Amino acid sequence: MATGTLTISLDAVVQNWRALDAMSQSGVQTAAVIKADGYGLGSDRVAKSLANAGAKTFFVATAQEGAKVRQALGPGLEIMVFGGHMRGDTDIINDLHLTPLLNSVEQLTRHFEALPSAPFGIQLDSGMNRLGMEPGEWAAVRDVALGQGPALVMSHLACADEPDHPMNDFQCDVFLEMTAGVQAPLSLAATGGTLLGPKFHFDMVRPGIGLYGGLPFADATPTVHLSLPIIQVRDVLEGEAVGYGNAYIAKSARRVATVSAGYADGLIRAIGNDAKVYAGDTVCPVIGRVSMDLITVDITDLSGTPDALDILCPHQTVDDLADSAGTIGYEILTSLGHRYERRYA
Ligand SMILES: *Cc1c(COP(=O)(O)O)cnc(C)c1O
User: Fold this and answer.
1) Alpha carbon distances (Å) from 319 to 36, 64, 112, 274
2) Cα end-to-end distance, the chain, whole Å
3) In this structure, is residue 217 part of a structural domain?
4) Domain-ending residue, one of 212, 234, 252
5) Are residues 245 and 124 in the same domain?
6) 59 has which bridge partners?
7) Where does the record place a coiled coil (predicted)?
C-alpha cells in the first residue's frame, strides 16, 4: 500500500487530558480545545473519547467546526465557539446549541437581537489584541451582558509558553480587573497557562495542544505515530543528484529510498533541510527536496531495506519534526494530511 499509516492514540489524548486536569484544583473544570478538527486528529473521535473521560466543555474556532462536534457528541455537552456569533451563523448556533464567545459589542448586539435566550460567553482582550472586547467596550456593555448570565467570561494569554514572561502576570492582572465582581465562570488558561499554576486557572482551564502531546506540555504522552512506506530503493553513485533542483548531490555512493508522503500530506517543504526518519532505532536523513507525494531518504547505514520508515515515533515527536522545519508542533499536527490511512488506537 503506497500510503502512510497515521496511528492516533485516543488513550494518549485521554491520558494527557487527565494529567492536565490533575494540575488544577478539583473545583476547576478542565475543558478541551478541539478546533482545527482536533488539531488534525479528528475532532469527532477526540470529543467522544474526552466526553467519556468526563470532559464537559469543548471549544472550536468556528460554528461550522462545532457542527461536526455536535454530531459526534449529541445534545447536552457544551460546545463553545471562539469566533463568536458571526453574521450568517445564527441558525447553526441556534439549531446545534452552540455557545458563541461574543468578541465585540457588534457581536453582542447581534446575539441578543437574534437569539435573546440562547447561551453565550464573553471573550475579553487582556492585552493580546487578537480577539475579545477591550476594557472600554466591556465597561460599556458589562452590565447588560452580565444581566443575561453568560456561561463563561474568558480571555487568552499571549506568552504563556514562556513562564517568566512579564506579559503573563500583566494579563492576569488586567483580567482580574475586568472581571472584578463578575459572578459568571472565568477562564484564562490554555495549555501554557494551565502549566503556569493555580493563579491562572480561575474556574476553567482550556488546554488544546497539551492534549495532543505537544509543547509546552513537556511531559505529555505522544498521540501520533506516522509510518511511511518505501516505494523504491536505488543505488546512487558519487556525484549523482537526487530530487528536484538537484538540491542533493551524493558525496559518496549512497543507497536511497523513495518514501510515499510529501508536502501534500503535511510534510511541509521546510522540513527538507535537516529532517530525519527512523527505521526502528536507526536514524536516516531525509535528502533532497520534499516533493508533493514523495521524500527521498539516505538508508545507506541500514543493513536491509525495511517496508516503511517512521517520521513521527518515540524518537521523533511532533515538536522534534517541527524544529527541523523551523515551526511549532501545532503546525505539524494541523497539517497532517488526509491521504494517510488513519487508525485509531
Ligand atoms: C487555541 C486556543 C486555546 C488552546 O491553546 P493551546 O495552546 O493549544 O492549549 C485556548 N484558548 C484560545 C482562545 C485559543 O485560541
Assistant:
1) 18, 29, 42, 14
2) 20
3) no
4) 212
5) no
6) 33, 80
7) none
Encode pLDDT of 7-39 as tens digits: 999 999 999 999 999 999 999 999 999 999 999
Residue whose CA is at the smallest distance from ligand 1 atom 10: 190
197 phi and psi angles, rounded to 5 deg: 120, 175
Q: Count of domains in the chain?
A: 2
Q: What is the CATH number of the domain that holds 78?
A: 3.20.20.10
Q: What is the Cα 198 distance to its own chain's centre?
A: 23
Q: Say which DSSP state 273 is in.
A: G
CB count within 10 Å of CB 341 equals 11
- Whether 206 is in the pocket of ligand 1, judged by its Cβ within 6 Å, is yes
Annotated binding site for substrate, which residues? 130, 292
56 contact partners, CB below 8 Å, separation of at least 6: 29, 31, 77, 78
Q: Report how far Cα 287 is from the mean position of its chain's Cα atoms.
A: 28
The boundaries of the domain holding residue 279 are: 224-344
Ligand 1 centroid, distance to 158 Cα (angstroms) = 10
Domain boundary among 212, 240, 267: 212
Asked if residues 50 and 13 have their Cβ atoms less than 8 Å apart, the reply is: yes
Tens of pLDDT, residue by residue over 97-114, are: 999 999 999 999 999 999
Q: Is residue 2 one of the residues assigned to a domain?
A: no
Residues 169 and 86 in one domain: yes
18 and 43 assigned to the same domain? yes
Return the DSSP state at 240.
Answer: -
Weakest mean pLDDT among 7-16, 24-33, 161-170, 267-276: 267-276
Does residue 240 fall inside a structural domain? yes
Q: Is the CB of 217 under 6 A from ligand 1?
A: no
8 A C-beta contact, residue 135 and residue 178: yes
